[in-house]
């Protein structure tokens, strides 16, 4: 029998994997393959944290496939070349994969699909990553949505899909297996051991994803609506890296949430579960925007911001480095940036606050922050990363108004009132009294820890500068031909 090549990408799971299900339905032997071609994702090559996760996720997937009577074939090189070579080696007559939505990968997949069809190879692609693919949701004019609320209402009106394929008991193996690379040869892990914090916090792989979901359902989801804003408490799901690598899918999350809602969990619980489902909707919206506006990872959706008076790289280099390493002298921001460096993750509210300081107080282009997050986040996702940074900068769809500037002192007092988060990640301030913790520069000189830096920026004065820059941009848009300000 002719085997089928199952090309795995960001769908590193066996349960609810539509491409795997389709391959099994053919009744043919299945050869699961993963092709490592990071250059095909240019200019958004996988960052160091993503490579670390990928190594461990592939290792976990390999073990799961072996337990199912199969194995994972690894190849490195151009995807089309590797597929053609595998087709020749195995005699396979069909290739099946799940779709990806990053602009560079969409173009690559189109070229590969056309080339394979020209050779007479059957090709099929499926949806494993989204509830609704970007081209299936549009407004009454047939245009893509730019605002989240009507987008999500349209999705909900369609009915949120919760059909989930179960874990296959076994996978039919071919008579002969092609040669596989050794995962260690890909050198995905860091040469200098900086990943201890990641290893302590995360369990990459499908099993790790389900353990994270079970913990969240048991201890976090029923208070998610309020708990998600408190960085010092485990109030969020931490499922984002598992979703990014496809170790769990959104339909599985919807199914789990709907089952919970059917158990009579009370008003607060129901409200919190609904809030979590809405966050899944924001992920959908991010992919919707990236698909329809593929220029946005580099360029603002609001084209007026192409003329924004950002500081020059030679002027902000020191401030950018201080921000990257959690040395701004603003405790909540520094805590977030250090959490990111040590764990590959940052609490969502703190992401907004750290981004706001970079863009609006330090006057540094949002693209600089997006690139740093891309390299350091284990959940680095081009769609969500782009949406988040453009939202904070005020230049994207459904963006926060530019004049909204997060005050990290007030945010810290409101959401980390006892200072648990700051004291954990900024131990220099561990013994500072609560009244000074969020603004240590206001403390008597004798109480200020000498090891902790003074603020890189005056929050009040820089806010005024940001607002003045916004007024300057509006005036430029008003005077430019065709320019307008809503």
TrEMBL record:
Note on cofactor: Binds 1 FAD per subunit.
Record-level Gene Ontology MF annotations: deoxyribodipyrimidine photo-lyase activity; DNA binding; FAD binding
EC supergroup of this enzyme: lyase
Record keywords: Chromophore, FAD, Flavoprotein, Lyase
InterPro entries membership: Crypto/Photolyase_FAD-like_sf (IPR036134), Crypto/Photolyase_N_sf (IPR036155), Cryptochr/Photolyase_FAD-bd (IPR005101), Cryptochrome/DNA_photolyase_1 (IPR002081), DNA_photolyase_1_CS_C (IPR018394), DNA_photolyase_N (IPR006050), Rossmann-like_a/b/a_fold (IPR014729)
Enzyme Commission code(s) on record: 4.1.99.3
A biological process from GO: photoreactive repair
Positions bearing the site annotation: Electron transfer via tryptophanyl radical: 310, 366, 389
Catalyzed reactions: cyclobutadipyrimidine (in DNA) = 2 pyrimidine residues (in DNA)
Binding residues annotated for FAD, in chain numbering: 224, 236-240, 276, 379-381
Domain Photolyase/cryptochrome alpha/beta span(s) in chain numbering: 2-131
Pfam family membership, one: DNA_photolyase
Domain of life the protein comes from: Bacteria
Gene3D superfamilies the UniProt entry points to: 1.25.40.80, DNA Cyclobutane Dipyrimidine Photolyase, subunit A, domain 3, HUPs
PANTHER family (UniProt xref): CRYPTOCHROME (PTHR11455), CRYPTOCHROME CIRCADIAN CLOCK 5 ISOFORM X1 (PTHR11455:SF9)
Described purpose of this protein according to its UniProt entry: Involved in repair of UV radiation-induced DNA damage. Catalyzes the light-dependent monomerization (300-600 nm) of cyclobutyl pyrimidine dimers (in cis-syn configuration), which are formed between adjacent bases on the same DNA strand upon exposure to ultraviolet radiation.
UniProt record similarity statement: Belongs to the DNA photolyase family. Belongs to the DNA photolyase class-1 family.
Record-given protein name: Deoxyribodipyrimidine photo-lyase
Organism: Ectothiorhodospira magna
């Amino acid at each position: 029998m002719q085997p089928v090549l199952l090309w795995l990408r960001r769908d590193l799971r066996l349960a609810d994997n539509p491409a795997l299900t389709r391959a099994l339905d053919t009744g043919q032997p299945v050869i699961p393959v993963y092709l490592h071609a990071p250059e095909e994702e240019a200019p958004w090559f996988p960052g160091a944290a993503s490579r670390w996760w990928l190594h461990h996720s592939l290792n976990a997937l390999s073990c799961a496939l072996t337990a199912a009577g199969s194995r994972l074939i690894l190849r490195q090189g151009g995807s089309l070349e590797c597929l053609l070579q595998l087709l020749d080696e195995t005699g396979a007559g069909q290739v099946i994969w799940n779709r990806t939505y990053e602009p560079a990968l969409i173009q690559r997949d189109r070229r590969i699909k056309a080339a394979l069809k020209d050779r007479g190879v059957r090709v099929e692609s499926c949806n494993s990553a989204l509830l609704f693919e970007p081209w299936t949701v549009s407004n009454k004019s047939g245009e893509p949505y730019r605002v989240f609320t009507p987008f999500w209402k349209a999705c909900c009106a369609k009915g949120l899909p919760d059909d989930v394929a179960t874990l296959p008991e076994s996978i039919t193996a071919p008579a002969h297996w092609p040669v596989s690379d050794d995962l260690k040869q890909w050198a995905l892990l860091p040469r200098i051991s900086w990943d201890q914090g990641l290893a302590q916090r995360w369990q990459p792989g499908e099993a790790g994803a389900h353990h994270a979901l079970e913990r969240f359902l048991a201890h976090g989801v029923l208070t998610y609506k309020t708990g998600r804003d408190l960085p010092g408490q485990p109030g969020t799901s931490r499922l984002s890296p598992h979703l990014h690598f496809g170790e769990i899918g959104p339909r599985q999350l919807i199914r789990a949430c709907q089952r919970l809602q059917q158990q009579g969990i009370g008003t607060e619980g129901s409200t919190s579960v609904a809030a979590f489902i809405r966050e899944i909707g924001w992920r959908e919206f991010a992919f919707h925007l990236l698909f329809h506006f593929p220029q946005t990872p580099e360029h603002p959706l609001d084209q007026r911001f192409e003329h924004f008076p950002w500081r020059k790289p030679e002027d902000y280099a020191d401030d950018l480095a201080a921000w990257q390493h959690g040395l701004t002298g603003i405790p909540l921001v520094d805590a977030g940036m250090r959490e990111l460096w040590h764990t590959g993750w940052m609490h969502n509210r703190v992401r907004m606050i750290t981004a706001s300081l970079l863009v609006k107080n330090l006057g540094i282009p949002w693209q600089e922050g997006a690139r740093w997050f891309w390299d350091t986040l284990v959940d680095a996702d081009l769609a969500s990363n782009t949406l988040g940074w453009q939202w904070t900068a005020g230049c994207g769809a459904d963006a926060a108004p530019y004049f909204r500037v997060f005050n990290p002192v007030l945010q810290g007092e409101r959401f980390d009132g006892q200072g648990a988060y700051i004291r954990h990640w900024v131990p220099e301030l561990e013994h500072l009294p609560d009244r000074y913790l969020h603004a240590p520069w206001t403390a008597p000189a004798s109480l200020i820890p000498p090891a902790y830096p003074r603020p890189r920026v005056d929050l009040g004065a820089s806010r005024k500068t940001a607002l003045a820059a916004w007024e300057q941009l509006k005036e430029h848009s008003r005077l430019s031909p065709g320019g307008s300000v809503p």
